[in-house]
Amino acid sequence: MLRKTIDIVDENNQPTGKVAVLNSPEKRSDEWSVLLIAVGENRDRQAFARLFKHFAPLLKSFAQANRHQGWFPGLSEDLVQEVMIKVWQKAAGYNPEKASATTWIYTVARNCRIDMLRRKSNTQHLPLENEDYWHEPDEETPVSLLRQKRSESKVQDSLSQLPKEQDEILRKVYLEGKSHAEASEELGLPLGTVKSRVRLALQKMQILVSPEYRDELSHEL
Amino acid sequence: MSYNLTHHPDATMLVEFSAGTLATAPSICVSAHLHFCEQCRTELLRLDQVGSQLMAEAESAEVDDSLFDSVMAKIDSAEANPEPSVATEVKGFPHSVSKLIKNPQHKPIWKRLSASVDIARFKTGQSDFEVALHRICAGGKTPKHDHSGVEYTVVLKGSFSDERSVYKEGDFLVRQPGDVHQPMGAQNGECICLSALKAPIKLANPFGFLMKPLLRINPM
Predict the structure, then answer these.
(1) Looking at residue B108, what DSSP letter applies?
(2) Which of A10, A123, B153, B163 is most enclosed, with most CB atoms within 10 A?
(3) Which residues of A touch B2 (CB under 8 A)?
């Protein structure tokens, strides 16, 4: 795999070092991904401090959005700490070909959030942590992934163009941590309506693209 | 490791898996399917971008500076006392299933369920589903049965068939109450499946009650 290095700079635009980035069709050169690679490859504490400064407030806000019945505000800072510790410990496994740093950190936060809830409601030893569900077999980045030239800014644009009811349901599902069944109860809508609203939104954003998911949707409508 | 699979979890399950709201037992089944299915892994990477974007555009909350110092202190102390890593992989099996097989707190043991089916129950720390491996011997027939609760199945090794289709490694199946079926193992070798079963199965055979004690489910 071709590699090149790029300079990383601190807040005042002063160079603090160089870092190798993957030179591929889907290379990541956004600031956060470069910093995350620096943490993974060089245990760069300055890069980590900058990631912390940017992500800790977002993670805290993500934690505060959780409306799960077992969650309470005091857990929010615990979540920030747990996620940032994992970011440091697991940064070496970050693959910039697959995801941006923001998406990667979101997945760490999602996993920590579930584990904290499960540990709280369970006194038994839990043999699996949520990240165990996401363990991927060693492989080359799938061709299908490289072919899909989807930048995350497209997700951002398409998200802002969704009708209000579709945007609202995605927030409930992702930020408030509600299952589809819980969302249907809360909104007073049939489960089928919630399911198709979520899927319509994701289709419109071109997130769900596999043929069977398209078929599934057209049967239901 | 990628096959052309024809049976996948539906879109709702993938979304809940990505959002982290899918219950433990079905999550284990989805994770086992992902081990075999590149297409669903790609779909999930895109779904995760939705959660990530929603997180990134939220209004940030205030964080006290002391939190950074506390995180660095914990990082340093963890690095001074690294936890020993234990090998848990079982060749050819998904990571999550391997970890359940090697769970030091509860080693699963094969038990005879019928003439051609063995079961090994897992401990997963939840009580809604029984999560277990089923092993059907080559050419083995399972009793014809219905379910009183939903059942998720993922083929981990070999293949089996029922009245509708043939299911190969990685295929993900959902059986709803009322779906009577009679799975049969392939002739060319044993078949191992992961399953998560919500409630006891009902035997379609009128003398099925004789087998009932054997079929009691044990969520743990």
Answers:
(1) -
(2) B153
(3) 139, 142
